Amino acid sequence: MAEARIYTIEHRMAGLFPVVNSYIAEGQDLMLIDTGLNDGSANTITKKLESLEHRLSDIDLCIITHAHRDHLGGLKALKERCPPFLVAAHDSEADEVEKATGVEVDLRLIDGQNIGGFTVVYLPGHTLGSIALLGAGTLIAGDALNGGDGALKGPNPMFTKDRDAAAASVRSLADLDFDRVLVGHGSGFETGGKEALLRLIERMGEP
Ligand SMILES: [Zn+2]
Predict the structure, then answer these.
(1) Measured in angstroms, how far is the CA atom of residue 142 from the centroid of ligand 1?
(2) Which of 10, 109, 127, 184 has the highest count of CB atoms within 10 angstroms of its CB?
(3) Cα(162) to centroid(ligand 1), Å
(4) Per-residue pLDDT tens for 140-171?
(5) Looking at residue 33, which CATH number applies to its domain?
(6) How many domains does the chain fold into?
(7) 202 C-alpha to center of ligand 1: Å?
(8) Cα 112 from Cα 7, distance rounded (Å)
(9) Which of 129, 177, 181 is nearest to 21 (CA)?
């Protein structure tokens, strides 16, 4: 694919602490990946789009990496303000997204599927239908990976449905080719992301 430009949107609790990220990818489609915490996150996303000289109505597609509230909280407000864009989530997560937001999932994704210039990577564990997106050397990991203290981490165990499956999903990423890693919470790696992943897998030890 042509190099997509990807921009991070940090959503802050009470305007203070960054708690969750979503992403805008400018490629063959204009994509939004995750939607933050709440209606306020929809405003944050709209402002970020405007700063990039886009409007909300320019969004072609919104991909939800997984159906946790801090990743889909802005979806309903975005959809109400600007109905046309398509919503996508993994086939085994789509019902949860619909239940949580009342917004219909238009595209039910499967592993390996191509969407908006990215490949869907199915990473069950944090939730049953968690996905990442891989394209042009970039992995957008959702919560399959998080960042902090200059390292990558697995998903927060407290909010993880199946920890063994989540660990296996982290290990499976070693087979993929990428340099940049963008994560759901904390800071990712603009470069050296694959090495950071391998260090994480080493720290995790034997399965
Ligand atoms: Zn999550």
Answers:
(1) 8
(2) 184
(3) 12
(4) 999 999 999 999 999 999 999 999 999 999 99
(5) 3.60.15.10
(6) 1
(7) 23
(8) 23
(9) 181
